[in-house]
Design goal:
This protein has one domain: Porin (Beta Barrel). The protein is built from 6 helices and 16 strands. The strands form 3 sheets. Strands 1-2-6-7-8-5-12-15-14-13-10-9 form a 12-stranded antiparallel beta sheet. A two-stranded antiparallel sheet has the order 3-4. Helix 2 packs antiparallel against helix 5.
Length: 275
C-alpha cells in the first residue's frame, strides 16, 4: 500500500525537481492520474500562490518505477494568478507535459447550482472488501490497494451485463485520507477523474476478457474548491462515446457535504491487450 502524499513528494528548488514513481501505483504502468498528481505538486512547489485552478496534460510515454525529473517554467506570472508549464522526464525521455494555472485566494462571485447525484452516503454502503471475496481480489493491480472503495450500485465484475458506461463510487485514500497541502488535496480529485473513466467504459460490455486496454492520451481538470475535511470523495465517471479507436471520458468529484470539487475528462486510446 502506498501513501499518496509521500509517493508524490517533490524535492529540489528553483524550478528543477525530482520525484520517484512508486510501484504501489501500478496499473498497466504507473497510473496516469498518479503521474499527473506529481506534476501538479511540482507546480505547487514552484509558486507562492495558494492553490491550483486547472491542469491540462498530455501523457507522452510510459515511465519506469524510478526517479523522474521535473522542470517548471513560468509562462505568465501576475500578482494573483500564474500559468506554469511542467515537463516530466526520465533519462531524457519526456513522459508528461502539463499546463497548470495556479491562483491566490481572491474575492469574487459566489453561486453554486451544481447538484450531487442522489446517492447514499458512504456510511450506508459496503466496501469492496465486504462485497468481494479476498481470493477474487488477490490479482488486482497494486494501485487498488491505495483506495477504499464503496460502490453505489454493486454488480460483481465477472457477472456484469452490457449497460450504461457510467460508474459512481465513493473513495477514500489510505492509509491517510486527507491532506492539508492544497495541491495534494486537489490531486486526489485529479487522480480519480483520470482513472475512473476506464472502469466506467467497461460497464458497456458484458463480463469476459476485454480485447483492449485504453490508456489516457490526455487529462484536463478544473479544480472548483478544496475540501481537506472530506475523507470520502464521490467519483462520478462516464464514457459516453467509444469510436474509431478513441474513448472519451468525463468525471466529476464531490465531497461528502455534496459540493462539487473538480470536473474534467480524458481522451483514451484503444490498444490490444498485451499478451
Amino acid at each position: 500500500m502506498g501513501d499518496f502524499e509521500k509517493d508524490t513528494t517533490i524535492e529540489g528548488t528553483d524550478g528543477r525537481y525530482v520525484a520517484r514513481l512508486s510501484r504501489d501505483w501500478q496499473i498497466w504502468g504507473p497510473n496516469g492520474g498518479y503521474v499527473a498528481a506529481i506534476a501538479l505538486r511540482a507546480a505547487g512547489r514552484a509558486t507562492s500562490l495558494s492553490r491550483p485552478a486547472s491542469l491540462a496534460g498530455h501523457f507522452l510515454a510510459v515511465g519506469e518505477f524510478d526517479e523522474v525529473e521535473l522542470a517548471v517554467h513560468p509562462l505568465r506570472e501576475a500578482k494573483r494568478a500564474a500559468a506554469l508549464r511542467v515537463s516530466m522526464t526520465q533519462r531524457d525521455r519526456l513522459l508528461f507535459e502539463a499546463l497548470v494555472w495556479v491562483v491566490d485566494e481572491v474575492p469574487g462571485l459566489e453561486h453554486d447550482v451544481a447538484v450531487m447525484p442522489d446517492v447514499p452516503l458512504p456510511g450506508a454502503l459496503k466496501s469492496i472488501e465486504e462485497l468481494v471475496p479476498a481470493e477474487e481480489r488477490a490479482n488486482a493491480y497494486p494501485f487498488w490497494g491505495n483506495l477504499e472503495a464503496k460502490p453505489v450500485h454493486f454488480v460483481p465484475w465477472n457477472e456484469r451485463g452490457a449497460g450504461m458506461p457510467e460508474r459512481r463510487e465513493w473513495y477514500r485514500y489510505r492509509p491517510r485520507a486527507t491532506f492539508s497541502d492544497p495541491f495534494v488535496d486537489a490531486a486526489r480529485s485529479l487522480l480519480l477523474i483520470d482513472t475512473m473513466a476506464w472502469p466506467a467504459c467497461c460497464q458497456a460490455y458484458p463480463a469476459g476478457p476485454m480485447p483492449y486496454i485504453a490508456p489516457s492520451l490526455d487529462v484536463a481538470v478544473h479544480f472548483h474548491r478544496l475540501a481537506p475535511e472530506s475523507e470520502w470523495l464521490l467519483s462520478e465517471a462516464t464514457a459516453s462515446v467509444a469510436a474509431q479507436g478513441l474513448v472519451g471520458g468525463r468525471g466529476q468529484v464531490w465531497s461528502e457535504a455534496g459540493q462539487l470539487l473538480a470536473s474534467g475528462g480524458c481522451q483514451m486510446f484503444c490498444r490490444p491487450v498485451p499478451t
